[in-house]
Design a protein that fits this description.
Elements lengths: L1 H14 L6 H7 L1 H17 L3 H15 L2 E2 L4 E2 L4 E2 L6 E2 L4 E2 L4 E2 L4 E3 L11 E2 L4 E2 L4 E3 L3 E2 L4 E2 L4 E2 L8 E3 L4 E4 L4 H12 L4 H4 L5 H30 L13 H11 L11
Parallel strand pairs: 1-4, 2-5, 3-6, 4-7, 5-8, 6-9, 7-10, 8-11, 9-12, 10-13, 12-14
Antiparallel strand pairs: 14-15
Helix pairs in contact: 3-4, 5-7
Length: about 260
C-alpha cells in the first residue's frame, strides 16, 4: 500500500511543478482527498452499500468541491489538479495516469440506465473547463483542450480543441507532413500554430504552405530543365538567416525612442 502511495505522489510531483513536499500534497491537495474518498465509496458501492457510498461521496463533494460518483471506475495514479467543479458520472471509466483540471465534466447524454458516460484511456489529459459527454471513448495519450466540448470518440494520441471538439493532431497524413517540412524550411513551425491561432488563420497558413510547396517543386523542375539546356541558374529556395531577417526588419521599422516628457 505504501509503495503504491509513494508511486502516486511521485507521479504528482512530475505533473505539478507547484508541488513542493509530500506533506503539502497530503494536506493541501483536494484532488488527492477526493480520490481517497472515492476509493472507499467505490468499494462500498461494490458491496451494494449504495446509500452509504452516496453519502460518503457527497461528503467528499462538500469538502473538496469535486463530485465523483461511487460507481465510476478510476485507474492508478489519477490526478485532479485544483479540482473545483469537477464532475465524474456513474458509468465513467478512467485509465491509468490520467490528469483532469478544474471544471471538467465527464457527463452523460441519456436518462436510460446504461453505459452513458465517457471512457478515458491511459495518460489522457483533460484541460480546465472541458466537457466530455456521452458513452464515447478517448484514446490513450489523447489531449482535450480547455473549454472544449467533446461528443465523439477521440483516437489515440490526438489533440481536441473547440466547440464542438475538433481533432487537430496528430498530423500523420502526407499533406500535413509536407506542410510541416515546408514550414521548417522557411523558419515557421506549422505544427505549433494550430494550438495558438484561431482556425481560419490556421487554415489560411496551411493553404499558403501548400502553395509554397508546389512552387518549390516547380522551381526545382525549371532549374533542372535550364541546367539540361546549358543555362546555369540556381532557382532553389535559399535558407533563411533569421539574424539577417531581424536586422532587415529593424532597418525597415527602426525602434523609436520613447517620447520625452514635457518639462
Amino acid at each position: 500500500m505504501f509503495k503504491n502511495l509513494r508511486d502516486y505522489l511521485n507521479s504528482i510531483f512530475q505533473r505539478d511543478p507547484a508541488a513542493r513536499s509530500t506533506l503539502e500534497l497530503l494536506t493541501a491537495y483536494p484532488g488527492i482527498h477526493a480520490l481517497a474518498f472515492h476509493r472507499i465509496s467505490h468499494r462500498l458501492w461494490g458491496w451494494r452499500l449504495r446509500l452509504l457510498a452516496r453519502l460518503l461521496s457527497q461528503l467528499a463533494r462538500w469538502l473538496t468541491g469535486i463530485e465523483i460518483h461511487p460507481g465510476a471506475k478510476i485507474g492508478r495514479r489519477f490526478f485532479i489538479d485544483h479540482g473545483m467543479g469537477v464532475v465524474i458520472g456513474e458509468t465513467a471509466e478512467i485509465g491509468d495516469d490520467c490528469t483532469l483540471y478544474h471544471g471538467v465534466t465527464l457527463g452523460g447524454t441519456t436518462w436510460n440506465k446504461q453505459k452513458r458516460h465517457p471512457t478515458l484511456g491511459n495518460n489522457v489529459v483533460v484541460g480546465a473547463g472541458a466537457k466530455i459527454l456521452g458513452p464515447l471513448t478517448i484514446g490513450n495519450n489523447a489531449r482535450i483542450g480547455s473549454n472544449s466540448v467533446v461528443v465523439k470518440d477521440v483516437p489515440e494520441g490526438a489533440t481536441v480543441v473547440g466547440i464542438p471538439g475538433r481533432i487537430i493532431g496528430p498530423k500523420t497524413d502526407p499533406k500535413s507532413q509536407l506542410r510541416e517540412a515546408m514550414a521548417k524550411k522557411i523558419g515557421f513551425d506549422a505544427y505549433g500554430q494550430s494550438t495558438q491561432m484561431p482556425d481560419p488563420v490556421a487554415h489560411a497558413i496551411d493553404l499558403i504552405l501548400d502553395h509554397l510547396h508546389v512552387a518549390d517543386q516547380k522551381m526545382k523542375i525549371l532549374s533542372l530543365a535550364l541546367d539540361k539546356a546549358g543555362i546555369k541558374v540556381n532557382l532553389d529556395m535559399p535558407e533563411l538567416d533569421m539574424n539577417k531577417l531581424e536586422e532587415t526588419k529593424n532597418s525597415i521599422y527602426p525602434q523609436r525612442d520613447s517620447p520625452k516628457e514635457n518639462s
